[in-house]
């Protein structure tokens, strides 16, 4: 009389339901995967300080954004033959301005999402994942990058002073002229040239500071995820030769795989904008300036600044790619015959369906995921366009008048055509 009703779902529908539930979201919203220990749970974090930006900050950012948009507009009117890296300059100013405006406007929401990620990690009291936040190396590297990024602001000021002969008068004149050129409205800028000079200097330093902030956040995210994956994989590989160890039974490893995948998705959801700014915004910058590091005739402070940027930008990408490779190793271990044969058939089918369509790693909005292939493509693009810029610079005239002969004009036109073709 009280017999259980048979399910009306077909096997295919049940399989699809399991695929949809593979991200582990529903299970994590209920009972945690591992034992919860309140000792490791932080107190409630008030996100109000992140969401209540002061009016002064809004005003400052509004005017500096206008300043950079005016610079982009002015740059677009230059002759690409006279300025070979013009397109790249426009690109990285555009990316910097756009990404940083959006980041500033949504910083409160981004901070709250990242707090949720940290809460999930801290609530998870499993021995394999506690090392992600106990790694002293991560703290030291992050602190060094933060201090170095603040130091680049000093290098920027010293760079301008060196170009202007270490004269404070010439220094302020440079920024006043820069603001007058960017806004292109002498009737306005001549009213108070010092005010617009301060705005131009502040905008330049603020742009570098916020870029450094996004770079530091990306690097810290990469290091945290690398420690997360690496700590579990190292323990798993140490006991690979012990098939009786239930801690690393294939079914248990699959559970860990699902949990790491879930946390990676939450990290990318919280950091997608910063990840995109780090990759897309810096790509044209390095394509334009990477060879300046080895240019002996360039400003020494500029070379120091670019060298510092390179010292963490390229390693951060490589660490993210290495973490992806470690995660792939976990997947490959599950796919071995002696391991997957111990997994129930339905769970195995769901797992195989999932890995066929998705690469798990640090990424941005699902558009890009950092793997070794991605790093190789980024480096090859940067080197190719940097070499092209060097060739374009080599055909520029040496005389002060700046007159180009017919041969150099034809050569410049050919290189410019190739340049535009490469961008498409």
From TrEMBL:
The chain crosses the membrane at residues 90-108, 141-162, 182-202, 209-228, 267-285, 306-323, 355-388. Keywords: Membrane, Transmembrane, Transmembrane helix. This is Odorant receptor.
């Amino acid at each position: 009389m009280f017999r259980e009703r048979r399910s009306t779902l077909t096997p295919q529908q049940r399989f699809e339901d399991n695929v949809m539930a593979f991200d582990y979201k529903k299970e994590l919203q209920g009972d945690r995967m591992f034992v919860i220990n309140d000792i490791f749970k932080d107190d409630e974090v008030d996100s109000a300080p992140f969401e209540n930006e002061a009016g002064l900050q809004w005003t400052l950012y509004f005017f500096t954004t206008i300043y950079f948009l005016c610079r982009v507009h002015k740059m677009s009117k230059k002759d690409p033959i006279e300025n070979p890296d013009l397109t790249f300059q426009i690109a990285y100013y555009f990316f910097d301005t756009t990404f940083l405006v959006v980041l500033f406007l949504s910083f409160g929401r981004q901070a709250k999402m990242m707090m949720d990620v940290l809460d999930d990690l801290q609530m998870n009291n499993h021995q394999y994942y506690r090392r992600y936040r106990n790694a002293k190396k991560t703290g030291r590297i992050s602190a060094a990058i933060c201090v170095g990024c603040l130091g680049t602001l000093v290098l920027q000021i010293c760079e301008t002073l060196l170009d202007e002969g270490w004269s404070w008068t010439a220094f302020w004149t440079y920024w006043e002229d820069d603001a007058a050129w960017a806004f292109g409205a002498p009737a306005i800028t001549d009213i108070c040239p010092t005010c617009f000079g301060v705005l131009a200097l502040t905008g330049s330093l603020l742009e570098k500071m916020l870029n450094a902030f996004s770079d530091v956040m990306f690097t810290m995210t990469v290091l945290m995820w690398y420690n997360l994956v690496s700590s579990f994989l190292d323990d798993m590989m140490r006991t690979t030769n012990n098939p009786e160890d239930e801690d690393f039974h294939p079914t248990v490893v699959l559970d860990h795989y699902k949990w790491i995948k879930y946390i990676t998705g939450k990290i990318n959801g919280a950091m997608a904008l910063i990840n995109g700014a780090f990759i897309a915004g810096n790509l044209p910058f390095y394509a334009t300036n990477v060879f300046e590091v080895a240019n002996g005739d360039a400003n020494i402070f500029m070379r120091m600044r670019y060298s510092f940027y390179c010292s963490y930008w390229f390693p951060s990408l490589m660490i993210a790619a290495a973490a992806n490779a470690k995660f792939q190793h976990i997947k490959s271990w599950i796919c071995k015959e002696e391991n997957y044969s111990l997994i129930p058939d339905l769970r195995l089918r769901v797992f195989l369906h999932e890995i066929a369509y998705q690469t798990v790693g640090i990424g941005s909005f699902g558009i890009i995921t950092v793997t070794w292939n991605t790093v190789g493509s980024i480096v090859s693009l940067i080197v190719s366009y940097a070499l092209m810029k060097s060739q374009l610079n080599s055909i520029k005239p040496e005389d002060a008048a700046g007159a180009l002969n017919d041969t150099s004009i034809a050569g410049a036109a050919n290189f410019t055509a190739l340049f535009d073709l490469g961008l498409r």
